[in-house]
Amino acid sequence: MAFIEKGKKSLGEQVRGSIKKIIPAPVFRVVQPVYHFFLAQVAAAFYRYPSRRMLIVGVTGTKGKTSTANFLWSCFTAGGYKTGLLSSAMICIGSRKIVNPYHMTMPGRFTLQQLLWQMVKEGCTHCVVEVTSEGIKQFRHIGIEFDCAIFTNLSPEHLSSHGGSFDKYQKTKGKLFASLSKKQAKILMGSVVPSAIIANADSPHASFFLAFPADKKITYGLNTSADIRGHSVKLIAKEGTEFFVGRERYLVRMWGAFHVSNALGALAAAQAYGVEDEAIRQGIGAVSVIPGRMEKIDAGQDFTVFVDYAHEAVSINASLEAAREYAGKDRRVIVLLGAEGGGRDKEKRPLMGDAAARLADFVIVSNVDPYDDDPMEIIEDITRAAESAGKERGKNLFVVEERREGIRKAFSLARTNDVVILEGKGSEQFICVRDKKIPWDDRTVAREELERLVGH
Protein backbone atom coordinates (compact mmCIF):
# COMPACT_ATOMS: atom_id res chain seq x y z
CA MET A 1 0.00 0.00 0.00
CA ALA A 2 1.35 3.40 -0.92
CA PHE A 3 -0.19 6.83 -0.58
CA ILE A 4 1.85 8.25 -3.46
CA GLU A 5 2.58 6.15 -6.51
CA LYS A 6 6.02 4.57 -6.26
CA GLY A 7 8.46 5.30 -9.02
CA LYS A 8 6.58 8.40 -10.13
CA LYS A 9 8.38 11.71 -9.76
CA SER A 10 6.55 14.34 -7.74
CA LEU A 11 5.70 17.67 -9.31
CA GLY A 12 8.43 19.23 -7.16
CA GLU A 13 11.03 16.82 -8.52
CA GLN A 14 9.92 17.60 -12.06
CA VAL A 15 10.19 21.35 -11.42
CA ARG A 16 13.60 20.91 -9.78
CA GLY A 17 14.83 18.86 -12.74
CA SER A 18 13.67 21.52 -15.20
CA ILE A 19 15.31 24.34 -13.20
CA LYS A 20 18.62 22.48 -12.91
CA LYS A 21 18.68 21.98 -16.67
CA ILE A 22 18.31 25.73 -17.21
CA ILE A 23 20.51 27.12 -14.41
CA PRO A 24 24.21 26.14 -14.15
CA ALA A 25 25.04 24.12 -11.02
CA PRO A 26 27.28 26.81 -9.37
CA VAL A 27 24.54 29.41 -9.80
CA PHE A 28 21.86 27.00 -8.57
CA ARG A 29 23.77 26.40 -5.34
CA VAL A 30 23.78 30.14 -4.66
CA VAL A 31 20.06 30.61 -5.30
CA GLN A 32 19.05 27.31 -3.69
CA PRO A 33 17.57 28.87 -0.49
CA VAL A 34 15.33 31.10 -2.62
CA TYR A 35 14.38 28.08 -4.70
CA HIS A 36 13.47 26.08 -1.58
CA PHE A 37 11.29 28.91 -0.22
CA PHE A 38 9.61 29.53 -3.56
CA LEU A 39 8.89 25.84 -4.12
CA ALA A 40 7.33 25.49 -0.66
CA GLN A 41 4.98 28.40 -1.35
CA VAL A 42 4.05 27.05 -4.77
CA ALA A 43 3.41 23.56 -3.36
CA ALA A 44 1.09 24.89 -0.63
CA ALA A 45 -0.83 27.02 -3.14
CA PHE A 46 -1.04 24.17 -5.68
CA TYR A 47 -2.74 21.93 -3.10
CA ARG A 48 -4.86 24.85 -1.81
CA TYR A 49 -3.28 25.10 1.65
CA PRO A 50 -4.59 21.85 3.15
CA SER A 51 -3.06 22.60 6.57
CA ARG A 52 -5.62 25.40 7.02
CA ARG A 53 -8.33 22.76 7.26
CA MET A 54 -6.77 20.65 10.01
CA LEU A 55 -5.32 21.13 13.48
CA ILE A 56 -1.58 20.79 12.85
CA VAL A 57 0.91 19.84 15.57
CA GLY A 58 4.65 20.02 14.88
CA VAL A 59 7.04 17.97 17.01
CA THR A 60 10.71 18.94 17.08
CA GLY A 61 13.83 18.28 19.13
CA THR A 62 16.98 16.20 18.86
CA LYS A 63 15.48 12.92 20.01
CA GLY A 64 12.07 11.59 20.93
CA LYS A 65 10.26 13.28 18.03
CA THR A 66 9.03 10.10 16.37
CA SER A 67 7.78 8.47 19.56
CA THR A 68 6.07 11.65 20.73
CA ALA A 69 4.39 12.09 17.34
CA ASN A 70 3.18 8.47 17.31
CA PHE A 71 1.82 8.70 20.86
CA LEU A 72 -0.03 11.91 20.00
CA TRP A 73 -1.47 10.42 16.81
CA SER A 74 -2.78 7.52 18.90
CA CYS A 75 -4.24 9.86 21.56
CA PHE A 76 -6.08 11.98 18.99
CA THR A 77 -7.33 8.80 17.31
CA ALA A 78 -8.55 7.36 20.62
CA GLY A 79 -10.28 10.69 21.23
CA GLY A 80 -12.38 10.15 18.13
CA TYR A 81 -10.50 12.38 15.69
CA LYS A 82 -9.39 11.07 12.32
CA THR A 83 -5.71 11.99 12.37
CA GLY A 84 -2.82 12.07 9.94
CA LEU A 85 0.81 11.44 10.84
CA LEU A 86 4.01 12.41 9.04
CA SER A 87 7.05 10.98 10.84
CA SER A 88 10.38 9.41 10.05
CA ALA A 89 9.01 5.97 10.96
CA MET A 90 5.43 6.02 9.70
CA ILE A 91 2.98 7.92 7.55
CA CYS A 92 -0.68 7.55 8.47
CA ILE A 93 -3.94 8.79 7.02
CA GLY A 94 -6.44 7.81 9.66
CA SER A 95 -6.02 4.07 10.19
CA ARG A 96 -4.08 3.55 6.94
CA LYS A 97 -0.36 3.22 7.65
CA ILE A 98 2.86 2.73 5.73
CA VAL A 99 6.50 2.73 6.78
CA ASN A 100 8.03 6.04 5.64
CA PRO A 101 9.63 5.17 2.26
CA TYR A 102 11.45 8.47 1.67
CA HIS A 103 14.65 8.05 3.75
CA MET A 104 13.95 11.49 5.22
CA THR A 105 11.64 12.70 7.95
CA MET A 106 10.23 15.59 5.91
CA PRO A 107 10.02 14.62 2.24
CA GLY A 108 9.85 17.15 -0.61
CA ARG A 109 7.50 20.10 -0.34
CA PHE A 110 5.10 18.85 -3.01
CA THR A 111 5.06 15.42 -1.39
CA LEU A 112 4.34 16.95 2.03
CA GLN A 113 1.53 19.10 0.69
CA GLN A 114 0.09 16.24 -1.35
CA LEU A 115 -0.01 14.04 1.75
CA LEU A 116 -1.70 16.80 3.75
CA TRP A 117 -4.18 17.27 0.90
CA GLN A 118 -4.94 13.54 0.89
CA MET A 119 -5.55 13.69 4.65
CA VAL A 120 -8.09 16.51 4.22
CA LYS A 121 -9.70 14.69 1.29
CA GLU A 122 -10.13 11.56 3.42
CA GLY A 123 -11.65 13.45 6.35
CA CYS A 124 -8.75 14.01 8.74
CA THR A 125 -9.32 16.85 11.22
CA HIS A 126 -5.93 16.58 12.97
CA CYS A 127 -2.37 15.96 11.81
CA VAL A 128 0.92 15.45 13.65
CA VAL A 129 4.11 16.37 11.77
CA GLU A 130 7.65 15.50 12.83
CA VAL A 131 9.76 18.60 12.06
CA THR A 132 13.55 18.53 11.63
CA SER A 133 16.09 21.35 11.64
CA GLU A 134 17.21 20.29 8.17
CA GLY A 135 13.61 20.47 6.96
CA ILE A 136 13.23 23.96 8.44
CA LYS A 137 16.53 25.05 6.92
CA GLN A 138 15.20 23.99 3.52
CA PHE A 139 11.87 25.77 4.16
CA ARG A 140 9.88 22.53 4.09
CA HIS A 141 7.74 23.87 6.94
CA ILE A 142 6.71 26.91 4.90
CA GLY A 143 3.10 26.65 3.77
CA ILE A 144 2.20 24.35 6.68
CA GLU A 145 0.21 26.39 9.18
CA PHE A 146 1.05 24.92 12.57
CA ASP A 147 -1.23 25.42 15.56
CA CYS A 148 0.94 23.69 18.15
CA ALA A 149 4.68 23.10 18.53
CA ILE A 150 6.14 20.48 20.87
CA PHE A 151 9.77 20.73 22.01
CA THR A 152 11.24 17.42 23.23
CA ASN A 153 14.92 18.17 23.99
CA LEU A 154 18.09 19.54 22.42
CA SER A 155 21.62 18.19 22.23
CA PRO A 156 24.49 18.66 19.73
CA GLU A 157 23.46 16.89 16.51
CA HIS A 158 23.32 17.89 12.84
CA LEU A 159 25.62 20.79 13.70
CA SER A 160 27.60 20.45 10.47
CA SER A 161 24.43 21.48 8.66
CA HIS A 162 24.30 24.63 10.78
CA GLY A 163 27.89 25.80 10.41
CA GLY A 164 29.00 23.85 13.48
CA SER A 165 26.98 26.21 15.70
CA PHE A 166 24.67 24.92 18.43
CA ASP A 167 23.14 28.40 18.67
CA LYS A 168 22.19 28.34 14.97
CA TYR A 169 20.80 24.83 15.41
CA GLN A 170 18.57 26.01 18.25
CA LYS A 171 17.46 29.14 16.39
CA THR A 172 16.54 27.05 13.36
CA LYS A 173 14.30 24.89 15.56
CA GLY A 174 12.85 28.10 16.95
CA LYS A 175 11.43 29.07 13.55
CA LEU A 176 8.72 26.45 14.01
CA PHE A 177 7.61 28.13 17.24
CA ALA A 178 7.84 31.61 15.72
CA SER A 179 5.45 30.51 12.96
CA LEU A 180 2.60 29.97 15.47
CA SER A 181 2.00 33.69 15.83
CA LYS A 182 1.98 34.23 12.06
CA LYS A 183 -0.69 31.74 11.07
CA GLN A 184 -4.18 32.68 10.00
CA ALA A 185 -6.96 32.17 12.52
CA LYS A 186 -8.51 28.72 12.12
CA ILE A 187 -12.05 27.70 12.93
CA LEU A 188 -12.43 23.94 13.03
CA MET A 189 -15.49 22.04 14.20
CA GLY A 190 -17.10 25.36 15.14
CA SER A 191 -14.31 26.62 17.42
CA VAL A 192 -11.28 28.87 17.04
CA VAL A 193 -8.11 26.80 17.28
CA PRO A 194 -5.72 28.26 19.89
CA SER A 195 -1.97 28.18 19.40
CA ALA A 196 0.03 26.19 21.94
CA ILE A 197 3.64 25.55 22.90
CA ILE A 198 4.37 22.30 24.72
CA ALA A 199 7.90 22.09 26.15
CA ASN A 200 9.93 19.50 28.04
CA ALA A 201 10.86 21.29 31.24
CA ASP A 202 13.58 18.71 31.93
CA SER A 203 15.60 20.28 29.12
CA PRO A 204 17.75 23.31 30.01
CA HIS A 205 16.74 24.78 26.63
CA ALA A 206 12.98 24.80 27.30
CA SER A 207 12.93 28.52 28.22
CA PHE A 208 14.15 29.49 24.74
CA PHE A 209 11.16 27.84 23.09
CA LEU A 210 8.68 28.98 25.74
CA ALA A 211 9.65 32.60 25.03
CA PHE A 212 7.78 32.58 21.70
CA PRO A 213 4.20 33.91 21.76
CA ALA A 214 1.28 31.45 21.96
CA ASP A 215 -2.21 31.28 23.45
CA LYS A 216 -1.24 28.36 25.67
CA LYS A 217 2.10 27.31 27.13
CA ILE A 218 2.37 23.95 28.89
CA THR A 219 5.42 22.21 30.32
CA TYR A 220 5.92 18.53 31.02
CA GLY A 221 8.71 16.52 32.59
CA LEU A 222 9.92 13.91 35.05
CA ASN A 223 12.45 15.72 37.21
CA THR A 224 10.95 19.19 37.49
CA SER A 225 7.94 21.06 38.80
CA ALA A 226 6.37 20.92 35.34
CA ASP A 227 2.70 21.56 34.64
CA ILE A 228 2.36 17.88 33.77
CA ARG A 229 4.81 15.83 35.82
CA GLY A 230 5.37 12.11 35.45
CA HIS A 231 6.55 10.09 38.41
CA SER A 232 6.90 6.56 39.81
CA VAL A 233 8.31 5.15 36.57
CA LYS A 234 8.55 1.36 36.70
CA LEU A 235 9.60 -1.21 34.12
CA ILE A 236 7.25 -4.21 34.19
CA ALA A 237 8.36 -7.46 32.56
CA LYS A 238 6.24 -8.49 29.55
CA GLU A 239 4.04 -5.38 29.94
CA GLY A 240 6.16 -2.30 29.32
CA THR A 241 6.75 0.89 31.27
CA GLU A 242 4.39 2.22 33.93
CA PHE A 243 4.19 5.81 35.13
CA PHE A 244 1.82 8.13 36.96
CA VAL A 245 0.67 11.72 36.51
CA GLY A 246 -0.80 12.71 39.85
CA ARG A 247 -2.83 9.67 40.81
CA GLU A 248 -3.54 8.63 37.24
CA ARG A 249 -1.73 5.50 36.00
CA TYR A 250 -0.48 5.12 32.43
CA LEU A 251 1.19 2.17 30.74
CA VAL A 252 3.50 2.45 27.75
CA ARG A 253 3.56 -0.97 26.11
CA MET A 254 7.21 -0.66 25.16
CA TRP A 255 10.38 -1.19 27.14
CA GLY A 256 12.42 1.81 28.28
CA ALA A 257 12.00 4.65 30.77
CA PHE A 258 12.86 7.16 28.02
CA HIS A 259 9.47 6.43 26.42
CA VAL A 260 7.76 8.11 29.39
CA SER A 261 9.04 11.59 28.55
CA ASN A 262 7.78 11.19 24.98
CA ALA A 263 4.39 9.97 26.20
CA LEU A 264 4.15 12.98 28.54
CA GLY A 265 4.68 15.37 25.64
CA ALA A 266 1.85 13.72 23.74
CA LEU A 267 -0.35 13.71 26.84
CA ALA A 268 0.20 17.45 27.33
CA ALA A 269 -0.69 18.27 23.71
CA ALA A 270 -3.74 16.02 23.72
CA GLN A 271 -5.05 17.65 26.90
CA ALA A 272 -4.40 21.11 25.44
CA TYR A 273 -6.81 20.31 22.61
CA GLY A 274 -9.56 18.75 24.64
CA VAL A 275 -8.95 15.00 24.47
CA GLU A 276 -10.48 13.25 27.48
CA ASP A 277 -8.13 11.68 30.03
CA GLU A 278 -9.44 8.16 29.48
CA ALA A 279 -8.94 8.47 25.71
CA ILE A 280 -5.37 9.67 26.33
CA ARG A 281 -4.72 6.66 28.55
CA GLN A 282 -6.09 4.37 25.85
CA GLY A 283 -4.09 6.14 23.17
CA ILE A 284 -0.79 5.83 25.02
CA GLY A 285 -1.50 2.19 25.87
CA ALA A 286 -2.40 1.37 22.27
CA VAL A 287 1.13 2.07 20.99
CA SER A 288 2.97 -1.21 21.32
CA VAL A 289 5.31 -0.89 18.32
CA ILE A 290 6.85 2.09 16.58
CA PRO A 291 8.67 0.81 13.48
CA GLY A 292 12.39 0.69 14.14
CA ARG A 293 12.20 2.23 17.61
CA MET A 294 13.26 -0.43 20.10
CA GLU A 295 11.22 -2.82 17.96
CA LYS A 296 11.54 -6.43 19.07
CA ILE A 297 12.24 -9.05 16.38
CA ASP A 298 11.31 -12.61 17.30
CA ALA A 299 11.94 -15.57 15.02
CA GLY A 300 12.01 -18.20 17.75
CA GLN A 301 15.59 -17.49 18.89
CA ASP A 302 16.54 -17.86 22.57
CA PHE A 303 17.85 -14.30 22.90
CA THR A 304 16.23 -10.89 22.47
CA VAL A 305 16.74 -8.67 19.43
CA PHE A 306 15.80 -5.00 19.20
CA VAL A 307 16.02 -2.81 16.08
CA ASP A 308 16.48 0.85 16.98
CA TYR A 309 17.14 4.16 15.24
CA ALA A 310 19.59 5.70 17.73
CA HIS A 311 22.29 7.44 15.72
CA GLU A 312 23.91 9.82 18.20
CA ALA A 313 25.41 9.42 21.67
CA VAL A 314 22.46 10.62 23.78
CA SER A 315 20.03 8.23 22.09
CA ILE A 316 22.52 5.37 22.16
CA ASN A 317 22.99 5.90 25.90
CA ALA A 318 19.22 5.77 26.44
CA SER A 319 18.59 2.69 24.30
CA LEU A 320 21.56 0.76 25.70
CA GLU A 321 20.56 1.58 29.26
CA ALA A 322 17.10 0.22 28.43
CA ALA A 323 18.67 -2.90 26.89
CA ARG A 324 20.91 -3.34 29.93
CA GLU A 325 17.91 -3.12 32.25
CA TYR A 326 15.98 -5.57 30.08
CA ALA A 327 18.88 -8.03 30.13
CA GLY A 328 19.31 -7.95 33.90
CA LYS A 329 22.51 -8.55 35.83
CA ASP A 330 23.63 -11.90 34.44
CA ARG A 331 23.03 -11.42 30.71
CA ARG A 332 25.06 -9.63 28.10
CA VAL A 333 24.25 -6.75 25.77
CA ILE A 334 25.56 -6.83 22.20
CA VAL A 335 25.31 -3.73 20.03
CA LEU A 336 25.83 -3.12 16.33
CA LEU A 337 26.22 0.53 15.34
CA GLY A 338 27.62 2.89 12.75
CA ALA A 339 27.31 6.49 11.57
CA GLU A 340 26.28 8.39 8.46
CA GLY A 341 28.62 9.96 5.93
CA GLY A 342 27.71 12.56 3.36
CA GLY A 343 28.83 15.53 5.44
CA ARG A 344 26.90 14.48 8.57
CA ASP A 345 28.42 15.23 11.96
CA LYS A 346 31.85 13.67 12.26
CA GLU A 347 32.12 14.92 15.83
CA LYS A 348 29.44 12.52 17.06
CA ARG A 349 31.28 9.38 15.96
CA PRO A 350 33.75 9.07 18.87
CA LEU A 351 30.98 9.90 21.34
CA MET A 352 28.93 7.03 19.92
CA GLY A 353 31.87 4.65 20.18
CA ASP A 354 32.51 5.65 23.78
CA ALA A 355 28.84 5.17 24.75
CA ALA A 356 28.66 1.76 23.09
CA ALA A 357 31.88 0.59 24.73
CA ARG A 358 30.75 1.64 28.20
CA LEU A 359 27.26 0.17 28.08
CA ALA A 360 27.55 -2.95 25.91
CA ASP A 361 29.54 -6.14 26.48
CA PHE A 362 30.24 -6.58 22.76
CA VAL A 363 30.44 -3.89 20.09
CA ILE A 364 30.23 -4.46 16.32
CA VAL A 365 30.89 -1.40 14.16
CA SER A 366 29.43 -1.51 10.66
CA ASN A 367 27.95 0.53 7.82
CA VAL A 368 24.90 2.78 8.10
CA ASP A 369 24.75 5.27 5.21
CA PRO A 370 28.25 6.18 4.01
CA TYR A 371 27.04 8.20 1.00
CA ASP A 372 30.23 9.49 -0.71
CA ASP A 373 32.49 9.03 2.32
CA ASP A 374 34.95 6.21 2.87
CA PRO A 375 33.00 3.65 4.96
CA MET A 376 36.11 2.48 6.78
CA GLU A 377 37.01 6.02 7.84
CA ILE A 378 33.59 6.36 9.50
CA ILE A 379 33.89 2.94 11.10
CA GLU A 380 37.39 3.62 12.41
CA ASP A 381 36.33 6.91 14.00
CA ILE A 382 33.84 4.96 16.12
CA THR A 383 36.10 1.96 16.69
CA ARG A 384 39.08 3.95 17.98
CA ALA A 385 36.84 5.64 20.55
CA ALA A 386 35.52 2.26 21.67
CA GLU A 387 39.12 1.07 22.09
CA SER A 388 39.94 4.14 24.17
CA ALA A 389 36.99 3.28 26.39
CA GLY A 390 38.43 -0.18 27.07
CA LYS A 391 37.21 -2.49 24.32
CA GLU A 392 39.69 -4.80 22.55
CA ARG A 393 39.56 -5.64 18.83
CA GLY A 394 38.90 -9.28 18.11
CA LYS A 395 37.80 -9.92 21.69
CA ASN A 396 34.79 -7.74 22.42
CA LEU A 397 35.08 -5.22 19.60
CA PHE A 398 34.63 -6.15 15.93
CA VAL A 399 34.78 -4.25 12.66
CA VAL A 400 32.46 -5.66 9.99
CA GLU A 401 31.91 -3.27 7.11
CA GLU A 402 29.06 -5.08 5.34
CA ARG A 403 25.96 -4.57 7.50
CA ARG A 404 24.34 -7.97 6.96
CA GLU A 405 27.59 -9.64 7.96
CA GLY A 406 27.73 -7.35 10.99
CA ILE A 407 24.22 -8.41 12.02
CA ARG A 408 25.20 -12.05 11.52
CA LYS A 409 28.26 -11.50 13.73
CA ALA A 410 26.15 -9.94 16.47
CA PHE A 411 23.77 -12.90 16.47
CA SER A 412 26.64 -15.39 16.52
CA LEU A 413 27.90 -13.87 19.78
CA ALA A 414 24.54 -14.11 21.53
CA ARG A 415 23.83 -16.69 24.21
CA THR A 416 20.51 -17.63 25.80
CA ASN A 417 18.68 -14.55 27.19
CA ASP A 418 21.29 -12.08 25.93
CA VAL A 419 20.09 -8.83 24.31
CA VAL A 420 21.21 -7.76 20.84
CA ILE A 421 20.42 -4.23 19.68
CA LEU A 422 20.89 -3.06 16.09
CA GLU A 423 21.33 0.71 16.07
CA GLY A 424 21.27 3.44 13.45
CA LYS A 425 18.82 2.39 10.74
CA GLY A 426 15.52 1.66 12.45
CA SER A 427 12.86 1.15 9.79
CA GLU A 428 14.68 3.04 7.03
CA GLN A 429 14.09 1.46 3.65
CA PHE A 430 17.48 2.11 2.00
CA ILE A 431 21.22 2.16 2.56
CA CYS A 432 22.76 5.12 0.74
CA VAL A 433 26.12 4.45 -0.90
CA ARG A 434 27.45 7.15 -3.22
CA ASP A 435 24.60 7.98 -5.58
CA LYS A 436 22.82 4.65 -5.04
CA LYS A 437 19.90 3.87 -2.72
CA ILE A 438 20.08 0.15 -1.99
CA PRO A 439 16.81 -1.38 -0.71
CA TRP A 440 17.23 -2.32 2.92
CA ASP A 441 15.30 -2.85 6.15
CA ASP A 442 17.15 -3.87 9.34
CA ARG A 443 14.00 -5.58 10.59
CA THR A 444 13.69 -7.77 7.50
CA VAL A 445 17.40 -8.60 7.41
CA ALA A 446 17.42 -9.38 11.13
CA ARG A 447 14.48 -11.74 10.73
CA GLU A 448 16.11 -13.45 7.74
CA GLU A 449 19.35 -14.00 9.65
CA LEU A 450 17.54 -15.21 12.75
CA GLU A 451 15.49 -17.69 10.73
CA ARG A 452 18.68 -18.96 9.12
CA LEU A 453 20.22 -19.28 12.59
CA VAL A 454 17.34 -21.22 14.16
CA GLY A 455 16.81 -23.36 11.04
CA HIS A 456 13.38 -22.17 9.84
From TrEMBL:
It holds the Pfam family Mur_ligase_M. It comes from the Bacteria. Residues 59-270 form the Mur ligase central domain. InterPro entries: Mur-like_cat_sf (IPR036565), Mur_ligase_C (IPR004101), Mur_ligase_C_dom_sf (IPR036615), Mur_ligase_cen (IPR013221), UDP-N-AcMur-Glu-dNH2Pim_ligase (IPR005761). It is found in: Cytoplasm. GO terms for molecular function: acid-amino acid ligase activity; ATP binding. Residues 292-426 form the Mur ligase C-terminal domain. The keyword Cell wall biogenesis/degradation applies. PANTHER family: MUR LIGASE FAMILY MEMBER (PTHR23135), UDP-N-ACETYLMURAMOYL-L-ALANYL-D-GLUTAMATE--2,6-DIAMINOPIMELATE LIGASE MURE HOMOLOG, CHLOROPLASTIC (PTHR23135:SF4). One of its GO terms (biological process) is cell wall organization. Pathway: Cell wall biogenesis; peptidoglycan biosynthesis. This is UDP-N-acetylmuramyl-tripeptide synthetase. GO terms for cellular component: cytoplasm. Keywords: Cell cycle, Cell division, Cell shape, Cell wall biogenesis/degradation, Peptidoglycan synthesis. Belongs to the MurCDEF family. MurE subfamily. The keyword Cell wall biogenesis/degradation applies.
